[in-house]
Design brief:
Low-confidence stretches: none
CATH topology: Maf protein
Order of helices and strands: EHEHEEHEEHEHH
Number of helices: 6
Strand content: 25-35%
Largest sheet: 7 strands, mixed
Number of strands: 7
Mean pLDDT: 94
Shape: elongated
Oligomer: single chain
Radius of gyration: 17 Å
Length: 192
């Protein structure tokens, strides 16, 4: 089976693949994510994932490179990135409280040997329950929201904020495993 290379330093993406028993090499992409352009949130997520995968594939002589980018999208169309500080995290969580939003993950796969590629995305709808000021402040005080798009991690204490999801749970964590597994089959990689 070809070597799998994850173009991400995200501990959550690494943990998801390791939970499947996948042996992989981690090579974080050194790109400026703010330089990636996209007319729509989907184009932005896919474009950023592709830029990460391309950067790593150009530097790894052999392997199947996987990259992803996850964004949180309010119904208003506003994109919530990672908060810069606790105040911004509190503001983001207020925007999410009692409402639904979309989590869009773009995924790019590139075979660095023959340059075959696949780029796709997955969307999951997440609905938050109504949160109190105290709950938001306690959650932000854990530090968990500070390195996550939308200021929450559904795989941690952030699960307590979510009322329901529609779609792939793993997509919200940062890597849509079922869709990735199917796409990797075309590259000779089986996650089963």
């Amino acid at each position: 089976m070809p070597k799998l290379v994850l173009a991400s330093q995200s501990p959550r993406r690494q943990a998801l693949l390791h939970s499947l028993g996948v042996d992989l090499e981690v090579v974080p992409a050194a790109i400026d994510e703010n330089s990636v352009q996209g007319k729509t949130p989907v184009e932005l997520a896919e474009g950023t994932a592709y830029a990460k995968a391309r950067w790593v594939a150009d530097r790894v002589p052999e392997g199947i490179v996987v990259a992803a980018d996850t964004i949180v999208l309010l119904d208003s169309g506003e994109i919530l990135g990672k908060p810069h500080d606790s105040k911004e995290a509190i503001d983001m969580l207020w925007h999410l409280s009692g409402k639904g939003h979309q989590v869009v993950t773009g995924v790019a796969i590139i075979d660095s040997g023959d340059d075959r590629m696949s780029v796709f995305h997955q969307v999951t709808r997440v609905c938050f329950r109504s949160l109190s000021q105290t709950e938001i402040e306690r959650y932000v005080a854990t530090g968990e929201p500070l390195d996550k798009a939308g200021a929450y991690g559904i795989q941690g204490k952030g699960a307590l904020l979510v009322e329901k999801i529609e779609g792939c749970y793993f997509n919200v964590v940062g890597l849509p495993l079922p869709a990735l597994g199917q796409a990797l089959e075309d590259f000779g990689v089986s996650l089963l």
